[in-house]
Write a sequence for this structure.
């Protein structure tokens, strides 16, 4: 399950990751478009890490990959995958600590996970959804070859307001045919 890229290691979460998870999830800018609120208490992070570690990337449900910076040996974010019951479709999401944003790490990490999903697990389709105001996440999905498939107006009530959601999808033939360069 361990994956290595040029600058990152994607791995299962460990108990020692809880403090760092709490730290980056407590950043209001990181939490802005996410389902959790900042601050993200350490006790909540410890529970989350236990749950992440107990899940399986090959079974239906959510699995969270820890993104570790290889050179610094530090947790810098995570990639979430919700594998559907049919084991042929999934939803993907991602979170990166502010200090590591805008450096290509999210693209590198999500690309590695998509490679695993399509090449190793044989998925047919992966979708992504984000708050329509989250232009950085939308741009990342488009860079990776996702097609914008729709806009759900006032779809989600979160943090006291109704938000529009953008829907993206990519099919196995599209991912497998792309030029990674």
């Amino acid at each position: 399950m361990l994956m290595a890229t040029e600058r990152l290691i994607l791995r299962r979460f460990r108990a020692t990751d809880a403090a760092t998870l709490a730290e980056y999830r407590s950043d209001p800018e990181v939490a802005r478009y996410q389902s959790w609120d900042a601050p993200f208490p350490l006790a909540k992070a410890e529970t989350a890490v236990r749950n992440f570690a107990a899940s399986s990337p090959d079974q239906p449900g959510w699995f969270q990959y820890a993104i570790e910076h290889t050179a610094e040996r530090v947790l810098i974010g995570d990639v979430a995958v919700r594998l559907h019951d049919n084991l042929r479709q999934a939803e993907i999401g991602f979170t990166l600590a502010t200090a590591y944003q805008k450096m290509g790490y999210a693209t590198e990490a999500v690309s590695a996970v998509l490679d695993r999903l399509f090449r190793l697990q044989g998925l047919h389709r992966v979708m992504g959804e984000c708050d329509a105001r989250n232009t950085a996440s939308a741009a990342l999905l488009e860079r990776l070859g996702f097609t914008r498939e729709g806009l759900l107006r006032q779809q989600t009530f979160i943090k006291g307001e109704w938000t529009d959601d953008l829907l993206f999808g990519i099919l196995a033939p599209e991912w497998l045919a792309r030029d990674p360069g």
The first strand starts at residue 3 and ends at 4. Strands lie at 3-4, 8-11, 61-69, 74-83, 89-96, 125-131, 147-158, 161-171.
